[in-house]
């Protein structure tokens, strides 16, 4: 099976947009944290996170292919079906049937929302953002309007609450804030 170093090398070969790479790293960190919280395989969940948008630059003009092309690109890499299914589920190509699928589905918009929170904060740093700040921004419908609140709320099913899910993701992203340049 592909390891993290191989996955990151693949990402850097396919993805030229720095902010997209940072998004993929943020999703990876959140997925690893959730896997740890749920007693799941952190390496596997992390790979799902870092690889989930591998095809984005190729499919941005044909979103119906997003995720499907990633699975085709990874077909010969010996990755487990559950990882590929999570990639498909994150873009509505299949219903979420496993915790990994649900996690990736919810984490994808959540990571972007948390970046928006950091950028809106006076300090412009993830370290300055706390869960109260995040919850207050969540109530503002026009704030980071592209981040589906419904999709994010699905993460609450994996944790004790939506707040616990958001806190887990925030802490995970704060842990790699240097890589995210936030």
Shape: globular
Sheet having the most strands: none
Individual helix count = 11
What is the radius of gyration? Answer: 15 Å
Low-confidence stretches: none
The total domain count is 1
Beta content comes to under 5%
Level-2 CATH architecture? Orthogonal Bundle
Q: Please report the total strand number as a whole number.
A: 0
CATH T-level fold name: Hypothetical protein af1432
Helix content: 55-70%
Structural class: mainly alpha
Average pLDDT for all residues:
96
- How far the N terminus sits from the C terminus, by CA atoms, comes to 31 Å
Helix and strand run: HHHHHHHHHHH
**The first-level CATH class name:** Mainly Alpha
Q: What's the gist of this structure?
A:
The chain has 11 helices and no strands.
Description:
- The protein has 182 residues and is mainly alpha-helical.
- The chain has one domain: Hypothetical protein af1432, CATH 1.10.3210.
- Helix content is 63%, strand content 0%.
- The longest helix is centred in the middle third of the chain and has 22 residues.
- The N and C termini lie far apart (31 Å).
Topology overview:
Elements: H1 4-14, H2 18-38, H3 42-51, H4 56-59, H5 68-73, H6 81-89, H7 99-120, H8 131-139, H9 149-153, H10 162-174, H11 177-180
What are the salient characteristics of this protein?
182 residues; mainly alpha; Hypothetical protein af1432; 0% strand; globular
């Amino acid at each position: 099976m592909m390891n993290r170093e191989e996955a990151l090398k693949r990402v850097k070969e396919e993805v030229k947009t720095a902010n997209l790479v940072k998004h993929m790293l943020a999703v990876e960190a959140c997925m690893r944290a959730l896997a740890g919280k749920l007693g799941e395989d952190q390496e596997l969940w992390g790979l799902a996170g870092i690889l989930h948008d591998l095809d984005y630059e190729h499919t941005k003009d044909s979103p119906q292919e997003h995720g499907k092309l990633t699975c085709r690109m990874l077909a010969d890499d010996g990755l487990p079906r559950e990882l590929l299914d999570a990639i498909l589920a994150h873009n509505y190509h299949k219903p979420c049937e496993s915790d990994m699928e649900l996690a990736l589905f919810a984490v994808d918009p959540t990571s972007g929302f948390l970046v928006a929170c950091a950028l809106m904060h006076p300090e412009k740093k993830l370290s300055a953002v706390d869960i109260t700040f995040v919850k207050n921004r969540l109530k503002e419908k026009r704030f980071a309007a592209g981040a589906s609140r419904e999709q994010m709320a699905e993460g609450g099913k994996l944790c004790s609450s939506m707040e616990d899910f958001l806190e887990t993701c925030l802490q995970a992203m704060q842990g790699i804030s240097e890589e995210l340049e936030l």
